[in-house]
Amino acid sequence: MSADQSTPSPARGPAIQVRGLEKSYQKLHVLRGVDFDVTPGSIFALLGSNGAGKTTVVRILATLLKPDGGTAQVHGLDVVTRAARVRESISLTGQFAAVDEILTGRENLVLVARLRHLSDPGRIADDLLGRFALTDAAGRRVSTYSGGMRRRLDIAMSLIGDPPVIFLDEPTTGLDPQARLEVWQAVRELARQGTTVLLTTQYLDEAEQLADRIAVLHHGRIIADGTLAELRQLLPPATVEYVEKQPTLEDVFLAIVGDTGTGSTGSTRTDATVAAVRPDGTSS
Amino acid sequence: MTRHFLGDTATLLGRSLRHISRSPDTIITTAIMPIAFLLLFVYVFGGAIETGSDRYVNYLLPGILLITVVSGISYTAYRLFLDLKGGTFERFQSMPIARSAVLWAHVLTSLVANLISLVVVVLVALAMGFRSGAGVLGWLAVTGIMLLFTLALTWLAVIPGLTATSVDGASAFSYPLILLPFVSSAFVPTDSMPGPVRAFAEHQPVTSIVNTIRALFAGQPVGGQVWIALAWCAGLLVVAYAGAMAVHHRKVG
């Protein structure tokens, strides 16, 4: 762990602390001793290819799965022995938007607010519909929503009750570029308000765009963990290459479509120099 | 954890009932097969079946009611499977709610949906000439037995709902159950069957339940059959509930 620089030392310890986490499915050794800490209020990206064990880590942290070995704590509460308490301070947004298609968007939000035993579920729902630009679609069944709208509703449902820790499991997998920007915008907004976000992703640019800290999960172990700057220092200084900077197809697409979702900025997407720096040790 | 059990169950029941009210086709399709059997047996085969009762539809209806429930409970497995597959189940389980409320809501929804299907089937039977000598108490007793039977079978349906790997798998478990009434006193009296078949027919749960309901509808004394019927239902309920809870526990820890 190289938590020495640039991360402000938290007063109340890490929001999430994982030590020596192990999990096997029959013969498949998915997690082989995973360690990491997540600072309160930060965005932490668990980066890895398919099958690296990202979802398993999230399911253990969300109290849906028991580890075979090691410990995991959320706000100092063990996810196995204090599972009920942990559930009060977390929220899970799984790999597929877990929204109820037959209900309307508003009914989905009211349902979760009721299950979190909050007073005035209707007002909470209306607030979130406004925040996630879903007010116009509030009374429509979710089966009529686009992928991006579903994901926004999904994330909005996760925010009900203001859980201090949110898990986002591959929040943008399967989304079109515009929807992806919408989700990124929502995640940044969360962190700005002090929520701790742990997200898993297989997209390098997503981790780079969003995360304060990135851990690379590979074959069941964390093989690198640090800020983007720290990870870059793992490699020899970049050699200067002259590359003609073409706009990416995504830039072109977004420019001609002329829509970048819910007010997110197009300017963050013009850096096309990312991929050349990666070593090819990871078989993604 | 159990602090919120009733409230959470009520909230989730409201959700499932909305599902039903927005896709009433699930109730219609539940009732279609039993009604088809009713028509087929009364108007095609019925004339050749000697039951000793004046109207074959009076003889037939109790068995048809059981078939209605058997075809209805597969929707519980189906809905539960969809919740699991879509991630809704995990969302609920990762929230600070009474975890078993998720299952109870599906089970209570099944009771409501099957009750509606049963009413539809009874109305069709009445239109076909079904008449009952049962009073209010008799009808209440029939309703009670049917609800107990539905409750037991629904908990059974929870097991494939939680363990199935495909939609087909989730609902296919009920097919063999639909055959049980055919090897019972539901369609024909058991004394016309050859020895071993008759022995099976007379000692499987459907016969005692059908005979009890038939006696209640006819306004006759139910005799010892009712206790056998209730014992079957209660036994099945206990076994199915324990099985479903064990699977649920393994699923969510």
Quick overview:
The complex is a heterodimer of chains A (284) and B (253). Chain A has 284 residues and is an alpha/beta fold.
Please provide the count of β strands of chain A. 10
Helix content of chain A: 25-40%
Strand order of the largest sheet of chain A: 6-7-8-3-9-10
Q: Distance N terminus to C terminus of chain B? A: 14 Å
What's the number of structural domains of chain A? 1
Return the string of H and E elements of chain A: EEEHEEHEHHHEHEHEEHH
By DSSP (H or I, 4+ residues per run), the number of helices of chain B equals: 11
Secondary structure layout plus pairing:
The complex is a heterodimer of chains A (284) and B (253).
Chain A: E1 16-25, E2 28-38, E3 43-47, H1 54-61, E4 69-74, E5 77-78, H2 83-89, E6 90-93, H3 105-115, H4 121-131, H5 147-159, E7 165-169, H6 177-192, E8 196-201, H7 204-210, E9 213-218, E10 221-226, H8 228-233, H9 249-257
Helix pairs in contact in A: 3-4, 3-5, 5-6
Chain B: H1 5-22, H2 25-45, H3 56-86, H4 88-93, H5 101-127, H6 136-163, H7 167-172, H8 174-179, H9 195-203, H10 205-218, H11 225-252
Organism (chain A): Micromonospora matsumotoense
Family (chain A): Belongs to the ABC transporter superfamily.
Pfam families (chain A): ABC_tran (PF00005)
